[in-house]
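Journal club prep, shared notes

We agreed each person brings one worked example of a sequence with its structure written out as tokens. Mine is Radical SAM protein. I'm keeping it raw so we can talk through how to read the token line rather than staring at a rendered picture. Sequence first:
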Amino acid sequence: MSKAFGIGYNPVEVAKTVEKIVATEIDGEVARKYFGFASTKFYGGSATGYVTGCNLSCAYCWSWKANKTFIGSFYKPSVVAQKLTQIALSKKHVYIRLSGGEPTLVINHLLQVLDYVKAFGRSREMLFILETNGIMIGYDKLIAKKLSEYSFVIARVSVKGCSEEEFYMITGAEKSFFNLQLQAVKNLVDNGVKTIVVVMLSFCNKESFSQLIEKLTAIDTAMASNIELEYVKLYPNVLKRLCKKDLKPWIAIDPIKKEVVKLDEFNKLCRNRA
Ligand code: SF4
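Then the structure, token by token:
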């Protein structure tokens, strides 16, 4: 994976710009744009709200179009919490989650959603999975401190690549921001938030992967048992974008055939598209 490295964008600055577009105040609450709510099969069944807007531009993001075009409508946290808990109750799900974009943008919205879940008396029977790229939690450690007040939150930090260079290739962001993802893990662990690290392995090499594991276990020796590996899923629009960017996973998953796709096969798929 040899590529020239550009400067890349600053995802903290992008976050500030995106927040202005995807947040507004309604009746004294911080509302955020969502492009849907659904019961999904993730984690064995979870009530899911799809937030609009992200501060990264991962080459394999399935929701990139929604995030770039800012589709959706504004929802108050009280309504979001109501929808999520109602879906979970009706489907007997334990898990509720936000997906689609980055939930830590507009942090006061997220905190208000958590407050309402608690106020509705659901925080003992439900778990909130916070799927995050970690950038803002690494940038502002107060976020981790605030999250620690909600014992029903489990953070899943999705680390983009295993090194600064792989992070840049995947996201196009300035490579040093990779380290904010690791800082996020540290901030969460230091504040006692249950944390799982999800590593996108498809673009890592052996060396960068082992270095990442060393860094994560240096943060917390118990972290080794809380690391999950993820492989890029070649949905048609993801395949198209990876081929166009010449970004090649050494291993991927065909989500339709449910098969493993190795590099040779991936190259063939790209050639067939051309
Ligand atoms: S961090 Fe997640 S939502 Fe944001 S671009 Fe990457 S994959 Fe998409």
